[in-house]
Structures are given as structure tokens and as C-alpha cells.
Amino acid sequence: MSVAPKTENAVMAPAEYDAVLLASFGGPEGQDDVIPFLRNVTRGRGIPDERLEEVSHHYRANGGISPINAQNRALKAALEAELAARNISLPVLWGNRNWDPYIPAVLQDAYDSGHRRILMLTTSVYSSYSSCRQYREDIGMALTETGLDGKLAVDKVRQYFDHPGFVEPFIEGTAASLATVKAALAAAGKDPQSVHVMFATHSIPTRDAQASGRSELQTMIFEQDSAYVAQHLANAEAIMARVDPAQEFSLVYQSRSGAPHVPWLEPDINDALADIAAAGTQGVVVVPLGFISDHMEVLWDLDTEAKETCAELGLAFDRAPTPSTHQKFVEGLVDLICERTVQNNIADRPAMTKLGPWYDVCNPGCCANFRGEKPAIAEVGSTVGLPAAAQGGS
After folding, report:
1. 3 lies in some domain
2. Highest-confidence range of 6-10, 17-21, 217-221, 390-394, by mean pLDDT?
3. Which of 114, 124, 185, 326 lies 20 to 30 angstroms, CA to CA, from 73?
4. Is 223 known as a binding-site position?
């Protein structure tokens, strides 16, 4: 695997920011919220409510509540505490793409409160349309819709998939889960070495996977022809190199949605579990490598469905924790903020794989939107959100 040399957009000059925006996906907070939330997620696709109700079961089973909002509140509080501990005076705002608090309203409130330059930190760490570009487009559209384009500047931190703050908690958690499964097998009189580690992430359409990391200005060669896949594989390799270099592991996918005829990344975790059981493996450690916290996809697709599959197959099972509010993760996020700020600047940009550190600003067309490109911040040549003077206006 090789990567083309980084261009001038790799590192942007530090700037004076007056707030941080924690941007996330959002989720329902009661049974009455489920269908309106799913309408937001699928807007523009013409999916009827009857079909949305069919796919709402994992939210319904949890009282109509997604854990993501509570997790983001906890992460926001942890970020505020870490910033205060470092004497960094940056308020942390919180906005969602698909549920209250909505990003456009948060930006409007920020502007009305006197903020003029905001640094966005997203809760999606890998490169793909849904985990990077869509956030950048949502900010671009929000600035346009609110009339704040040219008045409020919003920048974005780099994708931080291989930042030590994200990866180190997984190393710690994977090692602990591996020890748990081995002990369970030994206690059951089975071979404690008959364990497989599965790194699980959200499946995405194959076309989106192949477009991830691609741009009009830059050609890269990625493992399996996808930055999204390559980044996960590189992280998995880095984790296992620290935990146990001889341990067998693989990358699997979960949470597929969409039309059956559209190809998505495979293998599905449940199919992969059946395969390793048939091959004689007796235990599995599942590592939710694609998630920063225990989203519904983790609680349902892994802790419920995959765990039930393991029970049916007779596999010992343990699921490693997500970074959540792990102190190393929180410190890493604040380090990412400091990479971009004038005050408290951190010039060193650590990365635990050869793919990083990733870019501050993407080249045009990176992680293409196949439904039609929209104005996006943090892109070379984009003037969205820049002050009018910087756009060439008066």
C-alpha cells in the first residue's frame, strides 16, 4: 500500500477561534421521536413511514431512545473539563445533523452570542461521505440557509482515525476483552488460544467506500481501493501489534441499510461469526472500531444481535469498550483542537499508522456525494463561511 505525498492542504495555519462545535449524528429521545428522526436521516429518498417503522425496532426496543445524545452530553462535559484544566477559554457548543439541537440553530445562536470563528470537531473519525463530507456539506448548507455565509467562519479538525487518543483506548480494551474470553474458555475446559478478534465498523455502499479519500487533485492508492477500508485495517493492525502480534483478527461490517441490490462492504459480522465457528474457533472478541461511543449500532447490532449469534454458535463472546469519555480520548480531542489554535498550539501531529496524520482541508471532490455536490466547508477552493473580504467581496 502506498499513499501519494501530502499537499499544501495537509496543515493549515493556526487561527483564533472563539468556540468549538461538537457535531454529531443525533438520535431520538422518545417513542414519538423515532419516525420524525428516521425521516430526517432518510430525507430526499422518498421512503414511506411504513418502511421506516419496519427498521425502527432497535430504537423501539430501547424505549425510542438513542444513547448517542446522552453520550454526547457526557463528552461535551468532559471536553469542557479538560479545556478548563488546561486554562483554555473555548466554549463547547453541540449540534446534530438529524435531531435537536440542530446544527443551523446552533450556528445562529452562536452568531447571535457574538461568536465569529468556530472550530468543528465531529464524532465520526474515518474518511467517507457520511463520516466526513456530509458534515462539511451540512455546515455549508446551514451557513447559507441562515444567511451567515461570509459572517461566521467554521473550520473543521482533521479526521483523527489514527490519533493516539482514539487508538490507545482500543488497545487497552482489546487486551482486556481478549483476556476475558481466554479465561472463559479455560474455565469451560476449552482451548484458551482458540480466539478470533473481529474489528467491527459500519458498512457503507461499495461505491462510497471506493470514493473515500479520492479527489480531483490527488491520486492515492489504498488497500482494497478505499481510504475508509484502509484506515480501519491500518488501525486494526496497529492495535494488534501492541496487544498480540500473533493473534488472528479480521475486519467485519455491521448495520447495513438500503436497497438489497446495492452492494455494500462485506462480510457482515454475523456471517463472519458463522464462518469462524465452522472453522473450529471457540471464542471471539468484538472491537467496535468504527465508533467513538456506544451508539445504537453498538448496543443493538453488536451487544444484541452479534451476541445472540455467538450464543447460537457456541462461541464465547466479549465486546471491547468504545473510547467514550476515556481520559486519553478526551485529552486527544483537546490536542486536536490545539493543533488548530494560535494559543496553546500543538505543532506535533501524532498518528499511529502510515496513513496519517490526515489533512486539515480536503481537495475538491474528496469522498464524492453521488446525489449531487453541495457547498462544503474545509475544502480547497471553497469560500463557504469565509468572511466577505476573504471571498473577494467588499
Report:
1. no
2. 17-21
3. 114
4. no
pLDDT in tens, 224-281: 889 999 999 999 999 999 999 999 999 999 999 877 899 999 999 999 999 999 999 9
- What DSSP letter does each residue of 46-89 carry, written as one string? ---HHHHHHT-HHHHTTTTB-THHHHHHHHHHHHHHHHHHTT--
Domain final residue pick, 319, 351, 366: 319
Regarding whether 55 and 140 lie in a shared domain, the answer is yes
Residue 66 in marked binding region: yes
133: β partners: none
Among the ranges given (153-162, 196-205, 256-265, 325-334), the one the predictor scored with the smallest mean pLDDT: 256-265
Say whether both 231 and 246 belong to one domain.
yes
Burial of 261 (0-12, 13-18, 19+ CB in 10 A): exposed
Residue 82 annotated in ligand binding: no
Cα 264-269-273 angle, rounded to 5 deg: 140
Average pLDDT of the residues in 45-59: 87
Instruction: Specify whether the CB–CB gap between 149 and 385 falls below 8 A.
Output: yes
Per-residue pLDDT, 6:
57
Is 261 flagged in the annotation as binding?
Answer: no
Query: 138 and 173: one domain?
Result: no
227 in Cβ contact with 127 (< 8 Å): yes
Same domain flag for 21 and 133: yes
At which of 319, 347, 369 does a domain end? Answer: 319
Mean pLDDT is lowest, of 6-15, 111-120, 197-206, 366-375, for: 6-15
Q: How many CA atoms lie within 13 Å of 138's alpha carbon, on the beta-carbon side?
A: 26
Helix-, strand-, coil-residue percentages of the chain, each rounded to 5: 40, 15, 45
Q: Is residue 64 domain-shared with residue 120, that is, in the same domain?
A: yes
Q: Which three cell numbers, joined as nine digits, stand for 51? A: 418502511
- Domain enclosing residue 111, as ranges: 8-161+327-391
| Total number of domains in the chain | 2
